[in-house]
Structure formats: C-alpha cells, structure tokens
Amino acid sequence: MHNVKLIRSGDLLKIRFSDVQAADIGASALLLPYASAIALMVRSYGEYPVFVPGNDTIAGLIREAARGRLDTWGADGNGRIHIFTPNAVENSPIEIIDFTSVVEPGFLAVLFNPMTGVPGVVVDASAVENFIPGGKKFAQCLAEPVVQRMIDQALQEKILDENGCGGWPCTFDREIEGHEVTLTSKPRFTFRDGHIQMTGSASVAIDCWFDPDIDYEAKIRFHFETDANGNKVIAPDVYDEDVSLSCLDWFLGLIILIYGWICLIVVTTVIDAVGGEVVEAEGDKIAEGTKYMAGEIHGVGEVTTELDQIDVKPGGIILSGGLFTVSAHYALTYAPSGSTAPYRGWAASPIHLDAVDIHPRGRYQWKFDADASAEGAHVSHAYVRDGTYLAELTVTVQEPRGSVTHHWARVRADNVPPTVDAGPAITADEGETIRFDGKFADVEWGDRHEALWQWGDGNLETGVVAETNLAPRAEGIVTGNHAYGNSGEFTATLRVRDSDGGVGRATKRVTVRNVPPRVDAGPDLYAYPGIPVTLKASFTDPGWLDRHQGWWETGDTNGPGPMPALVREVNDPPVGYGYAALIHTYRTLGTFLAECTVVDEDGASGRDTLPVHVVDVVNGDFEGGFRNRIHGAVANGWEYYIKGAAEGMTGRPGISDESAAFQAEEFVVCAGRRSQRFNGRSGSVSGLYQKIGANPGWDYQVTARYHLDERAGGLCRLGLDPAGGSDPTAATVVWAEGRQRRCWSPLVVRASASAAAVTLFLEARSEQGGLVAWFDEVTLIPYPSPPGDPEKPLVPEKPREICVDWTSEPEQRALASPYARKGFTFRVPANANLHIVRWGVPQGEGKLNFPGSGMQVAPPFVADRAVAWAALYAGKSVLMEAFDASGRKLGDASSPSAQGTVHRLEVRAPGIETLKISGGGNEGLLVRLCVYSGPDEKPGPVKPRPGRRLPAGTAKAANDSPAGKG
C-alpha cells in the first residue's frame, strides 16, 4: 500500500490514510477487483495520531519530575542534597538553587545553578555539548573563563604575593639557576584546539650581557604516563618553542626551564581545582603529574576516579577517565533496589511486579502514578490506559544509617481492543433498507471509538456511534442502514476501533430473500393492420444487481407462442429497472390480450397483460355504406358537422339529392364504387370527422383525395387533431387545404399524438356561390416512436426531517420559557426551569435538562413521527407523549430506567402537533429530538394486476375506446 503519509505536528506523529486511492493498493489478481473498496476502507481510517514526544517535551518532563523530586529531598524538604563533587566537604552540601535540563541527540545534560546575572557570563543552555570523550565513563570540564581566573589567582598568589611584587614587572626574590629573573609582563594563556598557547616577556641578568630582554612563546599539551612507583602522572609536552634573545642562543634552555616552572603553576592549579593530589616536585623541577581525583558522597563513602586523559579545547580543559571506585567507610546498612523488569501485560488487567535481592529489614514501596501506590516486594497493579509506564520502587532499610535506594521499572500495558457484538442474524428482502444495531464494550473506559460496517457485498459504511465513557468500562451502540442489491447469504462485519488503534470485530449472518421483478405493460396499446408495433413493458426489481430475461405472447393467431424480448436495463441502486420489447405485426382488427413475462437470474418472475386494440380508419374508402341523417347521407363510421348556410340543407326524406348537405355518390369516385359528396351554398361549411385510437408520442400521417366541381367555387380541407378532440375550430387541429378542380387531388397532414386518440376532419366550405365537392380514399399511416432508453422510476418522496440538539453549546446556563431553537418551541410551567448542561452522557456535549413534571414541545410542522434521544440519572424513566391539534393523545413511548446511557424513544402517528417529555426525576437530559413528515419507508413490491388471457384471435370490446371496425 502506497501513499500512507507520516506527518509530524508538535509531539504528534500523524499517520494519514485519507490520501490512499485504488491505484495505491498493491493487490493480487484475486483481490484486484476490490482495490477501490479496499482504498475506501483505508481512507475511512482518516488520520491516526501517535504521541511521539520531541526533545523539548522530554526535557520539560524531566525538568518537572526532577524539580518535584528535589522538593522532597534534604532536611525538611529544603532541596539541600549531597551530590558527588570533588570539592564538597563534610556538612557542606551543594545547594541546588535552579537547574535546566538539555536533551539533544545522544545525550542528556542537567545544568545546575546557571550563572544568570554574573557580569561577563552569557548563559545559553542550547550551546551545551557532550564533552565526554568517546570511550570514557566520566569527564569534568573547566571552562576557559574559570581556568583563566584560576591562573590569575595562581599568578597573584605564587608570583606576585610570594615575591612581594605589587604588580608587573615582578622580580623573583630568589635566583633561578644562579640568575636573577624578572617577568616584565603578565604571562598570557590562550586555549587552542589541543594545546595552550603561552606568551610573555622576561629579563635575565647574565654575565655576557646586561639585562637581555626575552620575548617567549610556546605550546603545551599533556599526557598520562606511569612513573617508577606505579603512579599515574601527568607529563607536559612543550613544543614549538620560540624565544627572542638579545644575547646568545644558549639562553634557550634556561628560559624553557622558567617556562616549564610557570606551566607547573597552571597544572597544579587545575588539578587541585578538580580534586587531584599533585606529586611533590623535587627542588624547582616540574611536577611529575597528578595521582587521582577523588570526592565523597557523604553518608555513603568515598568515590575515587582515575584520570587517564586531558584534552585542551578552545573553551577550556576536559579531564576524563574510565574507572570508578567506591569505598564505604561509614557504618551503613545497604539494601539495593531492583526488579525483574521490564514487565508487559494488558491494560485494565493486573500486572505483577517483583523486587529482587529482598532485604529482611527493607521496606518496599511502589509508586505507579500520582494516585496509585502499593507496598511489598511482590505487588500487582492494573493500568487504566495502555502505554509505557515507569513504576518507581523505593527500598528503605528501617534502621539508623539505613540506605534508601530507588529503582524504576519499565512497564508496558498493551491496548485492549473493544469487545464487539454485531447482533443476531437478520433475514430481509433484497432492496429493503435494513437497520443494523451493534454494541461494544471497552475496559479502557477513557477510550473514544469509531466504527465501520462491512456489509459483505463489497460495500462498507461508517457506523454511527453513541457511547458512554464511565468506569469501569466504556459502552456504546453502533447503528447503520444498508440495502442489498442481490439475494444470498452475506456476512456483515462490525469493526470498532478505539482511540489507541485497537480493533474489535464481530460478524452477523444476513439472509437476503429474492424478490420477483414487478412488470408494468403500461396503458392500452393501439396497433394498425399490417403496421409493425412495439410491445413494450417496463419492469423494476429491488434487487438491482439481478439481470433479467423477457418473453412476450402477442395474443393473436400470428403469434407462434412466447417470443424472446429485447431487454434493456439499468442495474444501479436503489432499484434496477428496464423494459422488455418485441416488434410484432397484427393482421386483423380487434382487441388482443398480450402478456409479458420477465424473469430474474434467480428464477423469480413477474408478468403483466397488455390490451392491444388493432384499429384503422373506418370506411375510409366509403365502400362500407351510408346512412341518412338530417342533413343527408353520411358514410358509416363518420360523424358530421355543419355551419352557416349548410344548416338549412336537409334535403327531402328518403331522397339523396343536391338539396342536402351530404350525399352518397356512386358516379364521381376516385376508386371503387362510392365516394362522399358535399353540397353547399354561399357561406356554408360542412364536414365529417372520425376518432381513431392512437398512442401518445407516435406520429400519424393522414392522406385523403378530394375533387371540386369545376362549375362551382369553394375549397376542401383535411384536418388532424392530435389531442383527439371533436371541435374543428380547436387550435390543436392541423389543416391542409386545396382548390384543385378538373381532377382528383391529394391532401396530406401529419401530427404527433398527444392523447390516446387522434381525430380526422374532412371539410368543404364555400365563401361565395355554390359548392360541390367529393372526398375518397382516406388512409392513415402511423409512425411509432422508438423504444428509447429505460425510464428511471419515480423516486419516493423523502420524508421531511428537522432535528435539534445542543452539542455545540459551550457552557451551562438557565433558559427562560418559552425557549425556541431551530423551529422548536419548548415550554415549562412557571415554577419549573430549563437548563443547558454539559454533565452526563454523551461526555463533553451540551444537553437540555428538563423538569420531572415535563416540558411541552411544539415542532416546526405537523409531524408523522417523532424520535427523541434522552438520558436519565435519577433511576426514573423518561416518557414522551404525542398529541394532535385537538389535544387528543396519539401515542407515547417510554425509556428503561437504566442510568448513564442514552435511550431512544419513538412515536409514529399522523398529525403530531405537540409533544410532552417528562420524567427523569429532574435529572432527565434531552440529547436530540427529530420530527418527520412524509413517507419514511420504501413501498413494498406491487403484485402485477391480474389479466385474463384471451384465446388467440378472440376480440373483446374496449371500454370507452374510439370506434373501430371488427
């Protein structure tokens, strides 16, 4: 797995998982299809913080711990203690006024009594270096200013004072090698890397020249060697000597001797300052070195440390060695402190600690933290939280001059993951939203938790956690909702992770039953003889992952039985949907019952029937006969209308002549043996119309032949109303008109149906003079629309929801009644009060404390459901009641009396206008309140409507269907 980042932020090391993508997952071929799901699960971890203290934090902890320890040491706890130092003397302990701890890579330094405020001294703790040479056990460093002061003091005492000089130059009061020597200037000492540079000037009384002036300089370094008596002695190495003589060069040896004598002063002073014992010199020769550096720990014994290395640095002199010797010369009863550490165990469980080398008069005291301790050589302790701890063991010998020793044992308390219960097995239908309820407990009750549901179908979701964090253990519930897109057996896993990274898991079996698809063949379909028509049925399946097959039975004699259908579907949540389509051609007029069957991959089927009305223009060739109406002979299957002068053209009963508006024509025809004749006078309008069943969205084209008498005027019109109305003046009617004479001419009109029928109009009108017109050969050509893509079913309306809580309230306070928040209004009696409080569960969040007598709550709208989350602490249940506008009680819900946990109360009833929440013994807490309106559940599967299968070729009358042949 790649792209997991480590980010340092102060004392926290954050492990960031939120940037992991599918491409960052290195998986086997078997797991590769799940890379996206794995990446989603990893991203849900977010950032995991690990406490990794930095140098500053470590130094601060050491500083505070040491300060607390020093405050308890010494007589009367005054902080005066005995520490190892070469210069400490009996009954004169070092007083530690202040100290600073410095933590750097590779070493820890504790600086006692910083010289703050001393003129010329700059205190910079950050400049401290580890000056112990490699391979050495100890070292003492004398800073250059300190050594310079020592040298100045030595020059003052051993040269100026002993020789009676008030300053420089100074003449020695005794001859050196038989000569009088005067130091004409104060010797200067400069510290270099590896040596001390000394410069100065002198005059020497010699025979060959009077008072020759000498400028001298040299470098000196030191090393240890063993003398004939087996003593470690310091020997100086003088090199790069340079003496400027005004006389002969043989003075060089004499001056080197003087220079060595001055070095003796420096070496003696430095060694003496660190507690060394200097071997006495013979005569005026250079001292042969130092023997030991020693010191005492008062009340215990003498510490002897053997020096074996001296280093000169620009900042001072470092003396180091590799051997400690402790010799006790006091009457002392000593009991060491030690244990069998390190220890390891589980948090919140006893971990056994054992002291070793048990002394019969020793008192063994263990301190685990500020509030927990135990006494005895063998004890047990349970750490509430996981982590690494130092248990302090103090061993006190209970007699005069008995020792007090300390030991720190490292204890690792491992994190205990939470125990998880995912709940009992569940059986549900595919597509059904299932509520999951799990619970957990954690003996590390201070831990906070987060949860993840893995549904077992490749999906996962963060769980909603509600928990209490009270001793002796944390407890919580985890909820979630999920719908499965396919039937089968699934294992849902609940993972709960505590704030230390411990993960508890539990599983539950989920049995998902298959649900058959729901088929809807739609409204009645109109078909036309010899014209292909698409039989199309839509289907939905709550198991959206199911794939489907479909078959159609057409219901006519042309159908060879069930025919496989073309299936197009969309397999996305929350429901799969699609259609099954078949193109079929009906040859005869009538009504046929077609049936569609859709089968899912689990074998469950749904079906629906579709009445198919096969229709056409009735008597469009006018060979189907006529009937006499008031205004003349009108073709069968047609209705007529008249306007203007035509209203008086009724003709004579039983006779078909030109005095009627309509006349059956047997001589003037376009084809066949009959046509429809229209007669008119000036200003007359006459017409025929017919409704034909249609499918909305289809295009329809109508063609008619017309003929106008050349000896008369007027015009002919063909109209088509896609809305299926009977008013020729409607704005929806599409018209085509013609004035051709001498021959039969076509009129064509086309429109897209907007209703379940279209209306054909044949009209003749005369603006001036008489009119004679004929219509023949009226035909209809339908053009079906293509099936298109599956239409997504309507999503059920989501319930309206409004919730109120007080999570973000920063402080406790009293509230005046009435109190409004987020549309809710809360009221209490005059002698009662409402309070926002932060005590109780959930911890660290605000809640509404209500009186035991109850409070009235008006929601922001009329609700169908109310859900409250409440906690109690007086052992009395909380009651929620719901009322309508008239005050009639609609329902109630009460909580258990268990204290210190959050309970859920729910009331379902239409028309909730008022809620009353009471009980809890004045210690009831309302954590959250929600109200809902509208649907809150998915509708269940609707069974296909029953349909009666008609025998092939059988027609049935269609209720309220347009007229048709057959």
Query: Can you tell me the overall shape?
Result: elongated
Radius of gyration: 55 Å
Which strand-content bin applies to the residues?
over 45%
Task: Tell me the structural class.
Answer: mainly beta
- Share of helix among residues? under 10%
This entry's quaternary arrangement is single chain
Main sheet, how many strands, which sense, barrel?
Answer: 7 strands, antiparallel
Brief descriptors of the model:
966 residues; mainly beta; 6-stranded antiparallel beta sheet
Give an overview of the whole structure.
The chain has 966 residues and is mainly β. It folds into eight domains: 5-51, no CATH class; 55-130, no CATH class; 141-327, no CATH class; 343-414, Immunoglobulin-like, CATH 2.60.40; 419-513, Sandwich (Immunoglobulin-like); 518-614, Immunoglobulin-like, CATH 2.60.40.650; 626-783, Sandwich (Jelly Rolls); 800-933, Sandwich (Jelly Rolls), CATH 2.60.120. Helices cover 7% and strands 47% of the residues. It contains four helices and 68 strands. Strands 56, 57, 60, 61, 63, 66 and 68 form a seven-stranded antiparallel beta sheet that branches. Strands 9, 10, 11, 12, 13 and 14 form a six-stranded antiparallel beta sheet that branches. A six-stranded antiparallel beta sheet has the order 58-59-62-67-64-65, with no helix packed on it. A hairpin with a 5-residue loop joins strand 13 and strand 14 (232-245). Helix 3 (144-161) crosses helix 4. The radius of gyration is 55 Å and the shape is elongated. Mean pLDDT is 82; it is low at 75-82, 86-92, 245-250, 277-300 and 937-966.
